Amino acid sequence: MRIQPTTFHELYSRYAEDVYRFAHWLTGNPADAEDITSETFVRVWTAPEEPRMETVKGYLLTIARNLHRQRQRRSWRESPLEQQTVERAAPDASPAEAAEKREAFHETLQAMQQLPELDRTALLLRAEGELSYEEIAATTGMTAAAARVRVFRARAKLAELLQGEKDEHHQKHY
Q: 10 Å Cβ neighbour count for 129?
């Protein structure tokens, strides 16, 4: 059964930004995130069955994650982030604040890229996707308990990496 145009439009309107943000955190590249977002919705549109609406966000993020993994297998190159990502997050920031936010964003993204793919995915599904541990488990193929542990460990590792960045930055400037 194909999704009706009005339902598809509603689905896209409601979840496209979430899928994009998730894909952007996974890839670190806005253009790749846009491609993954588009391809995710193309796959939903052409799917033989309609997704269950109560799990649609997890379904969409699973498709996005799988597309990212396919791209990663094809190419291990990384591209720099565009400035507009930070500007979207802080549109009224002064130039100094914007520069500080941009630097913090790049440090966070760089630290995220150092996490193992599955840890990064679990953390993003929880933090950005706002999925439950059960939904993360269904999306990644692990148990809910394992998802909880992965998210906890990924947060701890990310904090450790970011603290290391702060300490390094502090030593360079003082």
A: 26
Q: How many CB atoms lie within 10 A of CB 140?
A: 18
> How many domains does the chain contain in total?
2
What is the predicted pLDDT for the residue at 80?
47
**Which two tokens mark 51?**
């997704």
Domain, as residue range, for 119: 93-174
The candidate with the shortest Cα–Cα distance to 148, out of 129, 130, 168, 123, is: 123
Q: How far apart are CA 135 and CA 138, in angstroms?
A: 5
Task: Return d(Cα 132, Cα 137) in angstroms, integer.
Answer: 9
Average pLDDT of the chain is 80
Q: Encode pLDDT of 4-27 as tens digits.
A: 556 888 889 999 999 999 999 888
